[in-house]
Amino acid sequence: MSDIAIELKGIDKRFGLVHANKAIDLKVRKGTIHGIIGENGAGKSTLMSILYGFYQADSGEILIDGQPVTIKDPNAAIAAGIGMVHQHFMLVDNFTVLENVMLGAEDSQILNASIAKARVELKRLEREYALEVNPDALIEELPVGLQQRVEILKALYRKADILILDEPTGVLTPPEADHLFRILAQLKAQGKTIILITHKLREIMAITDEVSVMRRGEMVATRQTKATSVEELAELMVGRRVLLRVDKGPASPGAVKLKVENLTVRDGRGVTMVDNVSFELKAGEIVGIAGVAGNGQSELLEAISGIRRAAGGRVMLNGTAVDVTGKADPADLRQRGLAHVPEDRHHVGLVLKFEEAENAILGYHREPRYGRGPFLDIPAIRREAEEKIGRYDIRPPNPRLKTANFSGGNQQKIVLAREMERGPDVLIIGQPTRGVDVGAIEFIHKRIIEMRDQGVAVLLVSVELDEIRALSDRILVMFAGRVVGERGADAAEGELGLLMAGIDGKMEAAQ
Amino acid sequence: MSTPYAKLPGWVDYGLIPLINLLVAFLVAGLVVLLVGENPLNAAYYMVTGAFGRGEYLGFTLYYATTFIFTGLSVAVAFHAGLFNIGSEGQAYIGGIGVALACLWLDRILPWYFVLPIAALGAAFFGALWAFLPGWLQAKRGSHIVITTIMFNFIAASLMVYLLTKVLKPMGSMSPQTRTFEAGGRLPKLDWLMSLFGLNIGNAPFNISFLLALLAAFACWVLIWRTRFGFEMRTMGHSPSAARYAGISETRITIVVMMISGALAGLMALNPIMGEQARMQLDFVQGAGFVGIAVALMGRSHPAGIIPAAILFGMLYQGGAEIAFEMPAISRDMIVIIQGLVILFAGALENMFRPAIGRLFAGLASRAPAASQAKGA
């Protein structure tokens, strides 16, 4: 028995012209938590997909417990003792926990015996690893944190000794994340090996033993966590020094630019997503909306920007009413000074098949300067796009390149350039740095602060609590569609975390 | 590396891959011919000489191509807005009413060059009207356009049977067709164009509506890529959620695009009615609306691709008829099989060879990594 659980030697993988993994070497020691960090597109997911048998490496070798293995599909990975917890859970929503755990691991066509066996096994796993969850609960009725636990149970049920977790905390509240870390520590104590993929440096520092950094398809460094620092890791990820703190002076709020009163939004099934929300947004301030994804922030932004009909309430923009329950039209709101950077740039903020210059006018394409009468002035559009490319350092600097061929950070800059350069009165930004590399995050944060200092009223929604705390002058916390608290920029993380989880003195009294 | 997706050079995407698909389609078609016990090489010979061998044959090929350009554009324009218009067939059929009415009314009074614009407007109007209804139903009532346009094809067919047997048929005639138009209802042939190349048009009905088709193709290009409306319809076609975000009205785009699509389909009626028969007959569309779907697919919904694709299908029609004539073992249905194979490989299986070709080019590119890196920096 060797001390190394997994060893990768010279793993190489190309997708067409993209060299996703370049001769990757990696050793993961048994019974440790090994972090893998890197920016989007650095090749982390590709590497793990190779390990889990979704892709085959073009060349290279995988050794498990010192033995070379071929992992041709996920079944082979499971047989080799590897389990994976995906970022997007692979669960059947209308199955129970027990059924999900068994799925694909039944002993025969007749299920009774398997069910009984699985129930016993599940009990044992729960005891051993403190993974309590009701085996008969339906998945769709469980909170996200528990769904993730089911994913972990699934892997353990299949006798995994090595667990791969892909961005496991992205959907969790801070308390849920803490609980997950306790579970991982427990698993480690029981001798399991854990690989944790994340882009959150703090998580790496908190729970890993060793950390490997990937950049542009290469494994650039492996460090003992104790012997490294957040700054060093950030620098290794980006390849240059980065400023992790945002410098900003105090806000000087002016007149109220956006006023939201008793806004209520329901989704297609009639479920209330935004519940009687009211707030004010003043010129020259950044109001951050914190909350775990799916607590109504998206619907709130969509209703204010006219994309989604509200069920009730009033919105005033620059002192005039916006017909949010009726005919609010995004094109009209844009003319009235509202700019919107949507959360989902791939499906909403951009048309990925358009060339860059076309996306640079999306939503503003009716403006007279982009053409005469019904016709578009393509040279003028490209010229202006080129200027913005220069100012926002969008790379590659080619307005005719298809938008899909830009990296996440550069795509986001295309949207930001379009929405910021109009000099709006109100700027609504959803997830400004989701899927954006560390280098671009710094730039985007700086621009947002600049907008504020120029007197723009900024409404910021992000699931990254750090980002909210770094940028906001005031913080609203949303939970289950309601604003459950307002705090200053200096609010403690723990306090916000509890609010995000819906735990609050008033709430408890109400229950 | 800043490109997350492997990209192929344009000439590969638009030239090489369609060509390979076409070759494979013909190879499989050759196997079918072999199976029937005929020599595929002979069949290929008859196909090509039958379509291009003489001025007259070429004239027929281009006559068919004219029709297919119109219906191909009709499908392509709708496709850019994400609408799959299966109803070009019916829209072309109803468009015929506009042509017939103009000709019946004016053919004895005005020369063709005055009748043509009126007939074209009539064709476009009736075609657009027939597409407006499914467009309106989708935009306002959520009835899926694929279903409604198919149904409207049947309604159009029944309506035309009624009109041609009860209303538009001259008294005493036994065939379901209008009276034959006088000089004002007949389009001049493009014999002068053919003779520029030293070709004799013979009996081929290749007529001036071909030039109108080319004009329509250019107008479509302008509409799609050079107007604000085209920008909006392409936005909706690629991403309805982005269109909503940009404040583009889905209702308006759906209805207007369907009407433009229907108008293009309707214009097709000029070619057989004024260009060849000088009367409107039952079933004059002959499936051209459905061929338009294949033409649009093969031409990648780009006017510059639709014209060659339409000529290809014109060749299959004209050359196919020659094969059926010269090789009795190969029936008319066999020609339909060959056309089907072309549609299958050029349309449905369009991406079959793409990964392999992508890998090939990746291999070539990595052999010259220094060059590409220098470019990236």
TrEMBL record, chain A:
Residues 6-241, 258-505 form the ABC transporter domain. It is a peripheral membrane protein. It is found in: Cell membrane. Its main location: membrane. GO terms for molecular function: ATP binding; ATP hydrolysis activity. Belongs to the ABC transporter superfamily. This is Heme ABC transporter ATP-binding protein.
UniProtKB/TrEMBL annotation, chain B:
GO terms for cellular component: plasma membrane. Its main location: membrane. GO terms for molecular function: transmembrane transporter activity. It comes from the Bacteria. It comes from Xaviernesmea rhizosphaerae. Keywords: Cell membrane, Membrane, Transmembrane, Transmembrane helix. Pfam families: BPD_transp_2. This is Sugar ABC transporter permease. It is a multi-pass membrane protein. The chain crosses the membrane at residues 12-37, 57-79, 113-133, 145-165, 204-224, 253-274, 280-299, 306-324, 330-349. The keyword Transmembrane applies. It is found in: Cell membrane. The lineage of its organism: Bacteria, Pseudomonadati, Pseudomonadota, Alphaproteobacteria, Hyphomicrobiales.
